[in-house]
Design a protein that fits this description.
heterotrimer, A mainly alpha (341), B alpha/beta (644), C mainly alpha (302), A: 341 residues, mainly alpha, 13 helices, B: alpha/beta, Rossmann fold, 3 domains, 6-stranded mixed beta sheet, 33% helix
Chain lengths: 341, 644, 302
């Protein structure tokens, strides 16, 4: 039996009056570091892009002018494009220009790149945003539904459809949708080339429908499965068992306990989904002839318009890095264990 | 909140004065004036005229396929009484505890039985198992509450403590009472468990220590003044000192609030400290049921006796009894008495007929031969060895310091291990004992100081040490589940270890593997098994075999029995002891468990905060410790000896 | 992104393991009992067979012009004619080879590059780890379709180049996943005990660690193939893959899309073929992943 000698318990964690201060400081430092990482990544990306576009065999000027061009004309164009400068100078002037918002001159259109692709960026953004606005809530809904009835018919059905949808390339889904809605039995939407040159989503919202639907169908299988898995994990955790044993209602448990913790991986997944959507945009725009960055990219490739190409690639990369960074920062903010030291 | 307790006890603060001392003087619980609404249990054990908090009859829980996890379980818990439910893994003890809350884990179904709880219902009692799930929910947390095994996992990491406490009130009483009143109740219950509200309420669980988190869980359980508590190994994972404090707290609260508690555990010594009655479970049945001193002093079931015999005690060095065979999981239990394949007293009828319960004046036993089981269970007490003088030091450490990054873990450690002895390194969590053993074996690069083997200096990292050095020191890990390569068969694992040091022909290799398996008591056919197919005890034996096959000089054992059942622990300890004697091995045994230390150590080194507190021969340090730290550690270690 | 999802896949209900003699329970055997693996596997084998054997069994030559452009189903042209009047069926039978070998090869290259990188990053840690991970971050940020289009436009359509590029684009993801699972394994005690005995370097990585990560890596390979199919076919559709007049499923999609309203089969049949191959692989991969998750869950429940 205990003889009465008292041993004090381990002293309480050292958190004093400066707790709040250090928390804010710690958070800011972390976020700044993360942003710095993102910027460094972008720098490295820009170097790779530059090397790729400039160190390739063949001369850009000659490629633009074609094989019939005289050496003199090629030389003139080279001078204009700054192609006779040493590589690193070209790089620094390009990068410097980027920082000032000057994306260079389009070779094909003889206009600033920003003019050429500016509105295209907006269009693609609208597409992306619309796809996100539709797919994210739907994915969450489906994921939650499947998670609260695991193993039942609903879950199996959702899973079966997910496996198929996840595997299909976007253009397959897109074309099947076109067949279904535009050409096939349901003549709900106008025929294949849905967008006219000059159309923007604002002027003709119907052109958004099928591309958004295609992107949504590409995203839902991934995101809903992620939501489902993280919710199931939360529902199987010890603290949910504890909540049940405390006598809490199922609804309370689901929302206040399980979802709150399941959100964290789901938010990460959402940000990464947006990054994934970026990749899908190019092909979807092609299939539906949607006037956005994707099709601008195709044209630039065909026309060997290097500055435009570089700008578009940097844009995609920056968006990707941004989404990833957001994912990391949001995770940090949502997890008390990480954000409070 | 209406508390239909007749004979209200003294104010909680007063009653908590020295409940442990009280309990020691009066092994029977204090009798409370009977409440006519609540009938005393007819099974009679708590004593006539006492209030019954919970009453279980004929409980049967099955897995989906008509395999029972527990069957025919009946017992009572009196108000203010702590009933211990002890068993090893597979005994079904946790299932019984959960059933009291009307809960069965996924895949299991409560097929039959009743669990009558006091404190609710028109007649003052309700059978929670007779209610539909929705109604059961209203009883959980309010009439019967649960205290979990792992508070860190059982508290929601994203919610502040205040929220997790107040939601219990709101779930059962709605917002009626008002936030003010609820806040006061929360503060009151936090004070009862010894926590300061201003330092607890606004925090997240990860900002509290293990002991504090457990106190929060206790507060959460008590806040609605339940009549019954189910405690699921609540002090596993806590330091011995913290455990002592929590046990005291629990004992006091149960007495002062007249709560009937079911304390589920595998640790018999803890029950000796705080339980009034003990139920022993084996293979889903209650095999023995009696007062603590009855069961511990005069156990009548062969399993209980063997189990008690296999528990090491911090007061005396005893010869641990070993139970042959292993527990059968549900669905594979033998016919008749489930214990018969392992029982020294088994006769023919034990193999075919399940024994009924025999009542020895309040002490219930489920055994055909209970009457023939002799009186006192004898524990052979061995003398604690006195180390011989003038031996050579095989391992020598001077001025060892180690850390992780900026954080220092070990400071200036010096020790020696002599030939043929067992040196126990004892420490609580955070003492640095695991870091120390990793430094010795070469798995911790960041170290300063000198470690030498028979005079030759050892490099800090294993890969820089010579083959001879690596061969002579062998390490055995704590977790049986992670210490063997899941993709390799047992013989492949042993062969790999052998080949690292010896280049002999295939026949010699195979012979060595067979020898090693035999030395640890495993059959040769297990050579082709994968680790997943073995039990925890068998896997530890394979780990030991792998160490032996390298022909070592020194064995470093890092908490090798902490993850094992008590009876399995006993067999491993005996195995290690036997091997040491046979082969003249030296051993360094790292542990937090002083009872194990008493059982196997020749000399003991106590570690705290990264420094050596004390080193001395075992007998000396355990009977006559010099430092205050060691004294407290020993006094806080629970002992089976209930006669003190 | 798939690495997050696929480590969280829910397990199959406990597949019966009893009945197998001691030591014979390997994950692969268990997986073969799964319905998903059987179904998906059969589908994959079927599509590969079509792709490999198809060119030898075409009823007509894939290049022969046998009818009017976009002619519908007619005798001798069970799926009608394509935009030049060639038999769709024959072209479909002949058109699977490129897709199949390119997607398998690029996934394989991705694994060959990414697995050692991930293992080394996890094993050595420190600056090597940082370097490899930062490098893979950069690679991930590069949109591969764009790069493929770029290279193809400047260098012409070299199929091996496309395969290489797609393989390189897989590498960062593979490296990340490999690093994660290698880390987990390295911290487990059986690896620590191997290190303590003095096993190191290749013997440790290949003898002790690799057998424990093979199965999750198989799952990863499956996912890479599915993604490769998307990329390879997509590039073909965009005109950066196999060039006309070769028969190729992806190419057929873009060639025949003009006649979608009139003769959809020229587009529908190839996309169904592409779809079946990808879906079959996905189901197969999912089956293996569930088997693994089931084993892990049972193991951690002990």
């Amino acid at each position: 039996m205990a003889t009465g000698l008292q041993l004090a318990e381990a002293p309480e964690p050292l958190l004093g009056a400066t707790w709040r201060d250090s928390r804010a400081g710690f958070l800011t430092a972390w976020i700044l570091r993360r942003i710095a990482f993102g910027i460094i990544t972008l720098f490295l990306v820009s170097i790779v892009v530059f090397i790729a576009t400039h160190l390739l065999p063949g001369n850009a000027a000659r490629a633009i002018l074609g094989t019939t061009a005289t050496p003199a004309r090629v030389a003139v164009l080279e001078q204009q494009l700054g192609l006779n400068q040493p590589a690193w100078e070209q790089y620094t002037s390009w990068i410097g220009g980027l920082f000032q918002g000057n994306l260079g001159m389009s070779l094909a259109a003889r206009e600033p790149v920003s003019t050429v692709i500016g509105w295209r960026v907006l269009d693609s953004l609208q597409l992306l945003l619309a796809a996100a606005v539709v797919s994210i809530p739907v994915s969450f809904g489906i994921g939650i539904l499947a998670a609260v009835r695991p193993g039942k018919a609903v879950d199996h059905a959702i899973n079966g459809v997910s496996v198929v949808l996840a595997a299909l390339p976007e253009f397959v889904t897109g074309l099947l949708l076109v067949l279904l809605f535009a050409v096939g039995a349901l003549h709900l939407l106008p025929a294949v080339s849905l967008a006219q040159p000059g159309d923007t989503p604002l002027s003709n919202p119907r052109i958004l429908v099928l591309p958004v639907l295609t992107l949504t169908l590409a995203v839902i299988p991934y995101l809903s499965r992620l939501v489902r898995a993280s919710l199931i994990e939360a529902l199987n955790s010890d603290y949910v068992v504890m909540a049940r044993l405390k006598g809490l209602k199922t609804g309370t448990i689901l929302i206040r306990h399980a979802l709150r913790n399941a959100l964290i991986p789901a938010v990460q997944g959402t940000a990464l989904t947006l990054a994934y959507l970026l990749g899908g945009v190019v092909i979807v725009e092609y299939v539906f002839q949607f006037p956005g960055l994707g099709s601008a990219l195709q044209e630039a490739v065909n026309q060997r318009d290097v500055p435009v190409l570089q700008a578009i690639v940097m844009f995609f990369a920056a968006a990707f890095v941004l989404f990833n960074m957001t994912a990391d920062i949001l995770t940090m903010l949502l997890t008390p264990r990480i954000r409070t030291r | 909140m209406n508390n239909p307790d007749a004979g209200a006890p003294a104010r909680p603060q007063e009653a908590a004065a020295s409940p442990a001392a009280e309990a020691a003087d009066h092994p029977e619980r204090p009798v409370v004036s009977p409440d006519p609404r609540i009938p005393a249990a007819t099974a009679g054990r708590p004593g006539a005229g006492t209030v019954v908090a919970a009453s279980v009859r004929g409980l049967r829980v099955e897995l989906a396929a008509d395999r029972d996890v527990v069957s025919d379980v009946s017992f009572d818990i009196g108000a203010g009484e702590i009933v211990g439910l002890v068993g090893e893994s597979g005994s079904g003890k946790t299932t019984v505890g959960m059933a009291l809350l009307g809960f069965a884990r996924r895949g299991a179904v409560i097929a039959a039985g009743s669990a009558v709880l006091a404190g609710t219902g028109s007649s003052g009692t309700t059978d929670i198992l007779a209610l539909p799930e929705k109604r059961r929910r209203t009883l959980r947390g309010r009439v019967v509450a649960y205290i979990p095994q792992d508070p860190a996992a059982s508290l929601n990491p994203s919610l502040k403590i205040e929220r997790q406490l107040s939601e219990v009130i709101r779930a059962h009483e709605g917002n009626g009472a008002g936030r003010q009143a609820a806040g006061e109740r929360i503060r009151a219950v936090l004070a009862e468990v010894g926590l300061k509200p201003e330092l607890t309420l606004g925090r997240y669980p990860h900002q509290l220590s293990g002991g504090q988190m457990q106190r929060v869980c206790i507060a959460m359980a008590l806040i609605l003044r339940p009549r019954v508590l189910v405690l699921d190994e609540p002090t596993t994972g806590l330091d011995v000192s913290t455990q002592a404090v929590i046990l005291k707290l629990l004992r006091g609260l149960c007495t002062s609030h007249q709560i009937g508690a079911l304390y589920v555990t595998h640790d018999l010594s803890v029950l000796a400290e705080i339980a009034d009655r003990v139920l022993v479970m084996y293979a889903g049945r209650v095999v023995e049921d009696g007062g603590t001193s009855q069961v511990f002093g005069r156990a009548k079931h062969p399993y209980s006796r063997a189990l008690l015999g296999s528990v090491p005690d911090v007061r005396h060095r005893t010869e641990l009894s070993v139970i042959p065979g292993r527990t059968a999981p549900p669905g594979q239990r033998p016919s008749g008495c489930a214990f018969h394949p392992r029982c020294p007293l088994a006769e023919d009828r034990c193999k075919t007929k399940e024994p009924g319960t025999t009542d020895f004046d309040g002490h219930l036993v489920r055994c055909h031969r209970a009457a023939q089981v002799a009186g006192q269970a004898d524990r052979v007490i061995l003398p604690t060895p006195v180390p011989a003088s003038g031996r050579t030091a095989v391992l020598s450490v001077r001025g060892l310091s180690a850390g992780y990054g900026q954080h220092a873990v070990l400071r200036d450690i010096s020790l020696e291990v002599f030939e043929g002895e067992c040196l126990a390194i004892v420490g609580e969590s955070g003492s640095g004992k695991t870091t120390l053993s990793r430094c010795l074996i070469g798995l911790h690069a960041q170290q300063d100081g000198e470690v030498s083997y028979r005079g030759a200096s050892l490099a800090a990292e294993a890969r820089q040490r010579s083959a001879a050095h690596r061969q002579r020191l062998q390490y055995i890990f704590q977790s049986p589940f992670n210490s063997l390569n899941p993709r390799k068969s047992v013989s492949a694992i042993l062969t790999t270890a052998y080949r690292t040091f010896f280049r002999e022909g295939k026949e010699t290799e195979q012979a060595a593997v067979a020898d090693a398996l035999a030395a640890v008591g495993l059959s040769a056919r297990l050579g082709s098994a994968l680790p997943d197919e073995l039990s925890g005890g068998e896997r530890q034996r394979v780990s030991i075999a792998r160490a032996l096959i390298c022909q070592p000089d020194i064995l470093l054992c890092d908490e090798v029995t902490s993850a094992l059942d008590v009876s399995v622990q006993a067999s491993i300890l005996r195995l290690l002891g036997g091997l040491r004697e046979e082969r003249g091995l030296s051993m360094v045994f790292v542990t937090h468990n002083l009872a194990v230390v008493r059982n196997i150590a020749d000399r003991v080194l106590v570690l705290a905060g990264g420094r050596v507190v004390e080193t001395a021969p075992a007998a000396e340090i355990l009977d006559n410790p010099r430092s205050h730290y060691t004294k407290t550690l020993i006094s806080n270690t629970p002992s089976l000896d209930v006669t003190v | 992104m798939s690495e997050i999802i696929d480590t969280l896949i829910s397990p199959e209900p406990a597949a019966p393991e009893e009945g197998l003699p001691l030591g014979r329970r390997s994950t692969l055997r268990l997986a073969l009992r799964s319905r998903r693996v059987q179904f998906g596997g059969s589908l994959v084998i079927l599509m590969i067979a079509i792709a490999l054997i198809g060119p030898h069994v075409t009823p007509h030559s894939p290049d022969a012009i046998l009818g009017i452009p976009f002619q519908g189903t007619s005798p001798g042209l069970p799926f009608g004619a394509d935009y030049l009047g060639r038999d769709v069926l024959s072209r479909v039978l002949a058109g699977g080879q490129a897709l199949v070998w390119m997607s398998l090869a690029s996934a394989a290259i991705g694994m060959l590059l990414g697995v050692p990188a991930g293992m080394l990053a996890a094993y050595y840690g420190g600056w090597r780890d940082e370097l490899i991970m930062r490098g893979s971050d950069v690679l991930l940020a590069l949109p591969i379709i764009v790069f493929a289009l770029l290279f193809v436009s400047l260098l012409g359509t070299e199929l091996w180049l496309i395969v290489l590029l797609i393989g390189i684009s897989h590498a960062p993801q593979v490296a990340r996943v490999t690093r994660g699972i290698t880390e987990d394994v390295t911290h487990r005690e059986f690896i620590q005990s191997a290190i303590a005995i003095g096993i190191k370097g290749p013997r440790l990585l290949f003898g002790e660690i690799l057998p424990n990560i093979i199965t999750p890596l198989t799952v990863e390979f499956g996912l890479r193939v599915v993604w490769s199919v998307s990329a390879v076919a997509g590039l073909s559709v965009l005109g950066a893959g196999i060039q006309p007049p070769a028969a190729d499923w992806g190419l057929m999609v873009s060639e025949n899309s003009g006649g979608l309203a009139v003769q959809p089969l020229g587009v529908v049949v190839p996309i169904i073929c592409i779809g079946l191959f990808a879906v079959g692989f996905n189901i197969l991969t999912e089956g293996i992943a569930r088997t693994v998750a089931g084993i892990d869950r049972r193991r951690s429940a002990e």
